[in-house]
Specification:
The chain is 45% helix and 19% strand. It is of the alpha/beta class. The mean pLDDT is 96.
Amino acid sequence: MTDPATEIVFHNYPQSPVAEKVRVAFGIKNVSWRDVEIPRLPPKPMLTALTGGYRRTPVMQIGADIYCDSQCILRELERRHPKPSFMPTSEAGLMWCLSRYTDGDLFTLAVKLVLGSAGADLPSDFAEDRGRLYLGQDWVEGLKRANEDLPHLVAQMRAPLSWMNNQLGDGRAFLLGADPAAIDAQMYHNIWFIRGRWSGGAAMLSEFPDLVRWEDNVRAIGHGTSNAMDAQDAIARAKLLEPASPTGVAANDPQDLHVGTMVTVSPDLDGGEQPVDGKVRFADADTIGIERTTDDVGTVCVHFPRAGYRVSIA
């Protein structure tokens, strides 16, 4: 019987490209997980009850520890399930640096390409939500520019696709060699998004045969084993348990954080989102975990990456 204190609960929805990245990561690790489907658009009351206001997709829950952002999720998966490794070669640091591109500028480019190509066909509520989330306050002008600049955006996307195709040109199965790695999942979610959401995606990708071969290899990994779970059951599980993550702050913290310091955490890009507040439980160069206590979920620890997130002392 699965231990509720260690079972992976994944809050996501099927169409999310970032969730697809993590689902592939589950496949690489060959883990079992519980699937909690969340709404595509806010409000997401069951999710934000757990996170304290963070609304992005996906979120991973293990007991009363809540992991926000895919980079935080992948680090925790590697810690709990070290074999097979997400980093099968010795270049782990370099691969994490590269992930800031695949998850940052490259994903933003894919978003602009998909949303810009949709134009007037994009539902207004979805356009407003995702435009504000990824393009900032001036999202209306941003979407307009994306539509007008579509040939330029395609040109910008073809360059990294060509780099990947060249990397795979020696016949290797995955980007680092014979074994799949985190960087395969991190790059793949952009390709999955473009192929599935842009009418011109398949034609553009067909220019790069080794990339398409790799894409097939990644798809064949699968998503591990999942079983559906109700959101209310996930909240009840969090309330029943206590956070199990470590406590402490690593030396040389640039903000002089300490266990118990009251902080707010939010994405570095102003996407109009609610900051999450709580007291520091753990912090190092990679991660910050903050404790929160509410009547509906009890005490949880919400984990965020340090890279790409702003921590403000309350």
